[in-house]
Amino acid sequence: MASQGLEKKHSIQDMIAQSRNKKGKKFIEKCMPIILVITALISVLTTIGIVMTLIFETFEFFQRVSITDYLFGTEWLPFSGSEPLYGVLPLILGTLKVSVIAACVAVPLGIAVAIYLSEYASDKTRRIIKPILEVLAGVPTIVYGFFALTFVTPILQELIPSLKIFNALSPGIVVGIMILPMIASLSEDAMSSVPNSIREGALALGATKLEVSLKVVLPAALSGIIASVVLAVSRAIGETMIVSLAGGATPTFDMNVTGSIQTMTAYIVQVSSGDAGYGTTIYYSIYAVGFTLFVFTLLMNLLAQFISKRFREEY
Amino acid sequence: MKYIDNTDVMKRMKSRLKMNKVWKSIFLIATGLALLTLVILLARIITQGAGYLNWDFFNNFGSRFPEKAGIKAALIGSVYLMLVIAPVSIILGVGTAIYLEEYAKKNKFTSFIQMNISNLAGVPSIVFGLLGLTIFVRMFLLGKSILAAGFTMSLLILPVIIVAAQEAIRAVPKEQREASYGMGATKWQTITRVVLPAAVPGILTGSILALSRAVGETAPLVVLGIPVILQFLPDGLLSQFTTLPLQIYDWAKRPQEEFQFVAAAGIIVLMIFLILMNSIAIMIRNKFQKRY
Q: A interface mutation test: which of B19, B98, B127, B228 has the most A CBs within 10 A?
């Protein structure tokens, strides 16, 4: 018996040693981490690629157009043959007009939806409504653009007769509809993570559900809600198809929302769908505008991360 | 002695309870409004486009005449594009997720990669188009091909897939890995035979959702300069092609009213495509989801 057991033990050790010495296996064990690091580095390379592309081509642009003219110029007329003007402010203003209108639509509605879902709705209603909101978030932006141009604009024209076919109002509202699910679901997550004991404490003191929502849960979840709004506005700034279909192509430097505008993204689309020859100033200008757009959205994303980290209430 | 005067309490509470009711209905109306927009959007597009949906619409190429316009090239182009995006983005995404969850040590390098991924997710899609135009179309000389567009789109949805795969891998309990090590398995064996099979449903669901986003995406393709109207089908990965959203964009831009209906018909096809993909994702999630 004893010798048999010893023999078995011996053979297992042999097997382990044998398997350790298998060359293929060892090779895979050593190789895979390296391959996986390389795949992980692709995402870093993408960022580097984006930044480098934008910087190099923008640098080329600033060889031809002075940087102060670009940053502080109030006229954007790249297609006027003899003397093109590259002042980016009208494009930025166009973008901001759309984003502000979108925020005016999406922030109150989104937070109201979030409060309803997190504080008032039963589990069953929540399970039905949340997927529908996800569908709303999954609708391609081209569909929203079509909706803005062929449905929202004509309706608005009935209400405001002076409204042009291309304007800031209609795409603004539709971009608001597009970012609404994002604000609603991120804010709802933030509010749901406020512990129930706090709600119960307030209720026990005689607060109504509304008072619990607005005076207890909302302040506790505020960092998450603000972060969701900042993220959503950053989405609105980068939104392309809605504004290029319904916003028009006239960069203007005024506060009018009923006339045609142009956003940074819409300008890039306009140049790309026309045939701007490679190497022309107009070609490089889309990179300069893209870089400006990238800086805007990056700052907003970093702000959102900072807010949700710095001001998070821990329970 | 009466400590609580009910009528007095009710008098004080009345306005507060009323406010509660009023605001509850306001929140409810807001939610209803959000859902209503979806219904209006869908109803509007179906009533506009349904009349143009027929066999010819699927069998014709793009055309200057609305009654002859079809989506054959666009539909096939979108499928081709998916065939490039799916393997590239899933291999890169899952590889990155495995590295971050299973191999990476908690150090500055790892948190740098993680931060980079979350920032990449916030970059507007049109900027990815600029990246693709410079790197893939011009530098790698891929031209306006399926491959160039596929790579660009893969990078665009990569962050989404990485995050979904990370969550799926993280949800596999530690005990399972330890049991596998205890049986003498190596790290790579544990990953491929224990962790990944358990995480596949989550990874697939996230990947399909990300792919459906890529299918509906237009802006980067416009920047790459992908042509809109093609009279032929793509014959290889380096061939020119067009996609559904691009075709819809072109129709929606045209001034003739008939093209709006054609665009709506195109949107119906696109939405059916997306709904099919999403249903598959939901089915996978419901069928294979295990809770540990």
A: B127
Report domain extents, chain A.
11-64, 85-310
Q: Looking at the structure, do residues B167 and B25 belong to the same domain, yes or no? A: no
Q: What is the pLDDT of residues B15-43, one digit of tens each?
A: 899 999 999 999 999 999 999 999 999 99
Using CA atoms, how far apart are residues A49 and A297, in angstroms rounded to an integer?
Answer: 17
A85-310 CATH: 1.10.3720.10
- Asked if the Cβ–Cβ distance from B134 to A53 is below 8 Å, we say yes
* ipTM for this prediction: 0.90
Write out chain B residues lying below 8 Å of A147, CB-based: 41, 44-45
| Nearest-CA distance A72 → chain B (Å) | 23
| One domain for residues B35 and B149 | no
Last residue of a domain, one of B15, B30, B52: B52
Q: Are A35 and B95 in contact (CB under 8 A)?
A: yes
B1 in a domain, yes or no?
no
State the pTM of this model. 0.89
Q: Residue B38 sits in which domain range? A: 6-52
Number of domains in chain B: 2
